[in-house]
């Protein structure tokens, strides 16, 4: 027996083991193993009970949150958003766990120490001839080795950070993609892409530089307790640059906010989540060759940029590909259809991760493509089921993350709160956001026919909440001093923005008079002037060729292809497209608002079958050959209606006394107001 | 540096570490830690990619299964059940993983061995002054230490057994409870309880005794390679005594099988899952005081019995309590309602586990109670949502378990296939099932007015499939030789019963002429004669008092309580009960078949409000005071309809050309057939 490896602290446990081992050695081999089994089983049982109790705490926390959300909605209390509420409950439970509960140090989690010279992922331990396998859980700081027993409980309620990335984030991001729909998004596509890509990168570098200055200052006055490289600062910039779609979606749906502003904010926040996650992983990958000094080097920078482009486009391609491929034909079996839809979406995530791309980004684009194509192929029942399923998953995951965020402020043991860094971070986040919004808006306004007005810009500045993605990115790695300081600071940033900015959005909106002032150019036909030329080309291609091939909606290919391609077209168009025509109109009308415009909207589709000589239904408005600005306009318009209606009904069905006005009537009202 | 602990096998890895550590030691401390971080990150990333790829294999397996199920349903191929299909796919993938794929031994999973004298749950490893935490994964047999690198991949696709118990099994069991509904179940309650409790215990002991004989024989001829105690035999008896509700539900819904037979089989298989899990844990807990000889002792036996009763009644009480407590009033917010319903069901499981009861059992009774009470309180949208959600979870979990079962036959490394034990087990399982069904049926027939006919008995004998629960119980602990042998044998038993018995059920049914022969006493009014007195008392209490208090359905208390209790009744009855009356009729009619009998069924409910002088609707049939055999009969009858209809629509919506006949018309057909 070799006890040299034991530290002095473990003497007590050691004596127990000596006792146990001497006890064991006097029993025969068989009884020994039987005894060991029982001890192991008891241990496992105890640990399992503890795990169940821990999980139960979270479930009850969620239950409490749901009940309070209901109460708030019921009483129309809107100064605190539900995610902010979840955080408060998490905070309270965290305080209780940290200060009120003391777990007696029990014998089941005895710890042993042995001196080896490496920390492999798997460790084989030889216990009197038997081999036990151990897996690496993580590093423990020297100061914690002393009270490892006391911290057992706190560490138990600390989840593996990968849980957030692999289990909780995907449904949230997928749901965002699945509910991000057409008209106003595509109308503002250029601006959204600019804010999300250029803006996020600008914000990341601004914050990174400012924080580096801050870190230099701290180093000067001796407040820095560990390494903090420039790449760390950039990493911090990347993770706090991502704005959160959750609160935007909830608050802006509830209030009848201008649709363009909504599209800008929601579109930006969804896409910049994707940008931030790829950006941060590229920065981690930024490592000058054969050098550990973390200095700036052009080659590594370029490589990093290459990684960014590669990962992003790979994830994008994968997400779109899966979304396009998943066209289910199991219409008669909604259960199978829903299960397949769910599994395919999940496998996009896994496939991307396995390929080294970013699953979250892939899932986002998968959701967007599936909403565009696959949704049309689903049976009406499956359309409802998938919507409801992802809505539920999103709701649970989101509230869980926010309560966990609150909880972790007290239960996470390695917090590094540094006042200078925190103040610097708040300032940097503010300036980074400003450097994203105002200059970009100015540049965009040069090209836009309908300008992004200054109150819109202020609103976008104000509503840049940080949320689930920022938290997940920062908790993913808290191994070093720099990362720990970032994590603590990030938590405070998220708390502040969700509580103050989230809670104040309503006030800010009325203060900026956004609800009352109709923006220029919200006319329904305005897409014609607004949309960019490449988008129009893509739209026509999509409408005439992709949709007919991939879904059962849209005009049959026989109508859109030139007459010479007739046989090919008939071959590619599924017979179902003609057969199911009646049915399809129904299932598609589920997508759009039932406001009497349906026949108009589908005029260009239904007339098309005339070309095959099969049957003509509906009133031809302009024939298939139109495919045109009108069709585009109408389709996007309905997509938008859906977004407004679905969002309101699903996310915050609060205004039951005052149902959300259809966009049209709202616009009329706007017009009347501006006219009077 | 101390290298004595390294075994000779790890020399190669050792040299790597020496290299790495010497490399590290010449770098300064900061760079060292930075380097280490990068190595750790790379390691973690690699491991994460591998995990994603492994999970992807399972997802694709499930996708393939779904597509094939669809094909089978489409082509009306019914000789192989979908669970059997999932197993076959799992087997194929297992073969590929085992024999076709060779992972080159990579540097990321280097293994290290150190000699210590115990195997604690947590291990602290001191690597040049830094502490790393390791957690116990399990024991590795001596022969495997050599090829641990080769087996890395196989072990990666091996799930933690607790995943089955804590993640996959609960939704399956909950769904079984949630879809187990009234009429025929309660009509046959006595018989079902007898089969499930007495029968399973009898079967467990018969199998245990037979296997002990078998083990003795093996010991005599020297075929036993390790310990095998009598308690192990009993444990084996307990785990293989549980029949599986999955296949019964699927197959019997598809065919129009006699409802009583269906109720007997389904009720028994649902309840005996609960009995088996508690029984097996009691047997594990059976440990004569201060004795490791595993001999029989009366006190320990009694204690074990006490554990059984305690755990079972505790779980039962907890499940029922949660089910009763969850009455949601969030009707305006279906999303919140569904989320709450889901969380409460899950917290039942966790609460039971944390209390030391059995979560699966608690979840079963929670599901049954929620179907009985909470379901009536949900808004129509939430009723659909919860049904669909649990249906989907059940479908995914079930198919996952069955494919994993197939996979594990090849990827599990510690199989012990012993021909004598296997043959003995098959014989014992057969005899155990026979000893359950035939003697009990004989005894039950003495008391039953409508006998369980012999072809029913043969059918019950034949349809005793073993499935998910048996697998989960046997994979839960495969640490000892005995358990490994049990696990391997159990796998074969499950394969055989699912493929042969499951696939042959259709043939067996037509062979036993069960589909054609109408059983005695399927008259609708027969509940009067059949049901046991205590059930009638409970039913009246439930109908008159519990339902009005807990749900918004049923007669208001003002009508059912004596006149003197008027004020109390008015206080307890929610005003909603009167207000929502119209709406409630609608939401309840969703539960039952729309065959014109609805007004009749709710006659006794709607008339009741007359007592309050509020409004009278519907045609009074017998008044509230009836509460009686007729009301009971009618309500149960409709519950049964629901079961048939829901089941057919949800689980196997195959007969689209020949929609399932409502029970009535079927009965009329039976009558006509027997009359002619």
Automatic annotation (TrEMBL), chains A, B:
Which cellular compartments is it found in? Cell membrane; Recycling endosome membrane
Give TM regions: 54-72, 84-101, 163-180, 192-218, 305-327, 339-368, 389-410, 416-435, 487-506
Q: Name one GO cellular component term.
A: plasma membrane
| GO biological process: one example | regulation of intracellular pH
The primary site where this protein sits is membrane
Query: Carries keyword Transport?
Result: yes
Q: What family does the database annotate?
A: Belongs to the monovalent cation:proton antiporter 1 (CPA1) transporter (TC 2.A.36) family.
Provide an example Pfam family for this protein. Na_H_Exchanger
| Domain Cation/H+ exchanger transmembrane residues, every copy | 65-510
Signal peptide (from-to): 1-30
Q: Which gene encodes it?
A: LOC107751973
| Protein name (database record) | Sodium/hydrogen exchanger
**Any GO molecular function:** sodium:proton antiporter activity
Print the keywords alphabetically.
Antiport, Cell membrane, Endosome, Ion transport, Membrane, Signal, Sodium, Sodium transport, Transmembrane, Transmembrane helix, Transport
Annotated region described as Disordered, given as residue ranges = 653-676
The opening ranks of the lineage are:
Eukaryota, Metazoa, Chordata, Craniata, Vertebrata
Family matches, as NCBIfam families? b_cpa1
Compositional bias per record (Basic residues), positions renumbered to this chain = 666-676
Q: Specify the superkingdom.
A: Eukaryota
Q: How does it sit in the membrane?
A: Multi-pass membrane protein
